[in-house]
């Protein structure tokens, strides 16, 4: 029976993910990490200082591009509450659709894209913009929102609800104080581009060999996007007309 099971074709989603039952494991792990880090922030202020994204330190502490996604404002519990709720809702949909590894890649790269967006769009250092911290999973969450929109349009599914959610959050990002709309925009653009790559490399319904060949292009294209984000960050850091910490 084991040998026969190996020859049986496993059902997959439109994007090559194995159809699994059960809970979205990666989504739950990401939420667990965010909650654990938040507890650490409440007990030790250095956690926020060491993990938040500060453009001034981007060149010599690049881990902040990603670590900031797991840090949230300790002055407002609704910050982490909203982000975790949004991550849970989008994760339940996207993780089974994309598979665990691709979903994790989407979250991570969108988080990095959010930090890059913040780096590119905050005021220059002589206006103190490079010294303002940015924290939160919002960039990654906006990437998941944008990816849901792009993938639903590709699949011919309803997109009105996600467009409304994106629109409301974009407006709130400009109206409410202390909201890093730059990170929201960066994450949304990055997530949308990644979803576009997913759509372009998805199986086309032809032969199995052709479908496998198309899927292989996703990760090289995703890595290329990360390289582009790194290049944009380096350009921004080098273009700042002020002393930098390196």
From TrEMBL:
Major localization class: membrane
TM regions (residue ranges): 21-43, 63-89, 101-122, 128-150, 162-181, 187-205, 217-238
Gene Ontology MF annotations: peptidase activity
Pfam families (alphabetical): Rhomboid (PF01694)
Origin superkingdom: Bacteria
GO BP field: proteolysis
Record flagged with keyword Membrane: yes
InterPro entries linked to this entry: Peptidase_S54_rhomboid_dom, Rhomboid-like_sf, Rhomboid_protease_S54
Compartments where located: Membrane
Occurrences of domain Peptidase S54 rhomboid (ranges): 61-198
Keywords tagged on the record: Hydrolase, Membrane, Protease, Transmembrane, Transmembrane helix
Membrane topology: Multi-pass membrane protein
Family to which the UniProt record says this protein belongs: Belongs to the peptidase S54 family.
Name under which the protein is recorded: Rhomboid family intramembrane serine protease
């Amino acid at each position: 029976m084991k040998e026969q099971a190996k020859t049986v074709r496993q059902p997959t989603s439109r994007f090559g993910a194995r159809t699994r039952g059960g809970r979205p494991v990666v989504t739950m792990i990401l939420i667990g990490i965010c909650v654990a880090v938040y507890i650490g922030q409440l007990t030790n202020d250095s956690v926020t200082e060491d993990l938040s994204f500060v453009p001034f330190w981007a060149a010599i502490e690049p881990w902040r591009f990603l670590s900031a996604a797991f840090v949230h404002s300790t002055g407002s519990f609704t910050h982490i509450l909203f982000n975790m709720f949004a991550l849970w809702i989008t994760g339940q949909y996207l993780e089974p659709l994309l598979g665990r590894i691709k979903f994790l890649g989407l979250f991570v790269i969108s988080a990095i894209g959010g930090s890059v967006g913040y780096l590119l769009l905050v005021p220059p250092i002589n206006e103190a913009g490079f010294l303002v911290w940015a924290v939160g999973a919002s960039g990654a969450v906006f990437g998941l929102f944008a990816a849901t929109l792009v993938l639903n349009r590709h699949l011919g599914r309803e997109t009105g609800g996600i467009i409304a959610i994106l629109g409301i959050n974009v407006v709130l990002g400009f109206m409410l104080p202390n909201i890093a709309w730059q990170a929201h925009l960066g994450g949304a653009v990055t997530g949308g581009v990644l979803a576009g790559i997913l759509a372009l490399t998805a199986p086309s319904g032809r032969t199995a060999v052709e479908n496998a060949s198309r899927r292989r292009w996703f990760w090289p294209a995703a890595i290329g996007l990360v390289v582009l984000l790194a290049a944009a960050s380096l350009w921004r850091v080098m273009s700042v007309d002020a002393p930098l910490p390196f």
